[in-house]
Amino acid sequence: MKICVPSSGKGGLDDLVGQHFGRVPTYTIKDTETNEIGTIENKSEHMGGVGLPPELLSQAGVDVMLCGGLGNKAVQQFEQFGIEVYVGANGTVEEAIMAWEAGKLPKATSENACQSHEHHHHD
């Protein structure tokens, strides 16, 4: 199983969980079968590239996304690609993974989706 955590910097277990999953520079991925840690650069349309994060992460074989929060539309996009989403991740990537493994992160639902991420922010 591959677990993905949006990362606020270059990625890795010591990096902090990025709180806006679509705009983070990298995603850290842990393969639970091999314990390998990898990173994927965010090249989605949010960062001037192509595609949406759920699509990119699906192509990388991600099964589970751990994040601080995200909008209902994003939750639905991840579900379309067969990726389970859990919310409430914070601290370092490693701490978020440990919290998920301990059953401390709730699965994302329309009830706990972050309403502030439902619309585009206007500057």
Describe this entry's structure for a reader:
The model is unreliable at 116-123 (pLDDT under 50). It is globular, with a radius of gyration of 13 Å. A five-stranded mixed beta sheet has the order 3-2-1-4-5, with helices on both faces. It has three helices and five strands. It has helices at 53-59, 72-80, 93-101; strands spanning 2-7, 26-31, 37-41, 64-67, 84-87. By secondary structure, it is α/β, with parallel strands linked by helices.
Layout: helices, strands, pairs:
Layout: E1 2-7, E2 26-31, E3 37-41, H1 53-59, E4 64-67, H2 72-80, E5 84-87, H3 93-101
Parallel strand pairs: 1-4, 4-5
Antiparallel strand pairs: 1-2, 2-3
Share in β-strands: 15-25%
Secondary structure: helix percent? 10-25%
Strand order of the main beta sheet, please? 3-2-1-4-5
Give unreliable regions as ranges.
116-123
> In angstroms, what separates the terminal alpha carbons?
39 Å
Q: What's the overall geometry?
A: globular
Rounded average pLDDT: 87
Rounded to the nearest angstrom, the radius of gyration is 13 Å
Most strands sheet:
5 strands, mixed
Pfam family, one: Nitro_FeMo-Co
Protein name: NifB/NifX family molybdenum-iron cluster-binding protein
InterPro entries: Di-Nase_FeMo-co_biosynth (IPR003731), DiNase_FeMo-co_biosyn_sf (IPR036105), MTH1175_dom (IPR033913)
Domain Dinitrogenase iron-molybdenum cofactor biosynthesis: 14-101
